[in-house]
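Final report, closing paragraph on structural work. Over the funding period we assembled a curated collection of sequence-structure pairs, and we close with a single example.
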Amino acid sequence: MKTQKPNITVRRKSELIKKFHAIISHEAQPQMIKDEVKASYGVISMRDMTVAQLTEICDKLQNNKPAFDKEMNTWRRRVMAVLGEYCRLLRKDENADYIKAIAVRSSGGAKSFNSMTKQQLRTVYNAFLDENKVIKASFEVSNEEKYSLAMQN
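Its predicted structure, as stored:
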């Protein structure tokens, strides 16, 4: 039995659909974006779109990507900074791999630091920002108690 190769249009369409999914995979709500695209073109499935439509969508999303990447890098730097402070407060190892591992474990499901969504980065950042405030406050209370005990002796 001979197998037929899919024609070039079908293959190109599959490549574009994969590219589309790769582009939106790092967004906070990829399913919502996918649904909006399908609704705007009046199709039920991405496979119902033409190669030209898929190319147009991928190009539009790709052109918006640099601004998104810049924002994501900003959030990554913020997470690294707040976790670096956390490690310093606890006198733990402060290398980048250790900090990234803490962030990934704290994210609740990311496979790697760079695959974390903006919402996950934001959540980790705010959680450790609050944690750092608590640690600093406890150090202040501890230092005040040490001072008052020293004054009593």
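The mean pLDDT is 84. The helical segments are 8-24, 30-41, 51-89, 96-107, 118-152. We thank the funder for supporting this effort.
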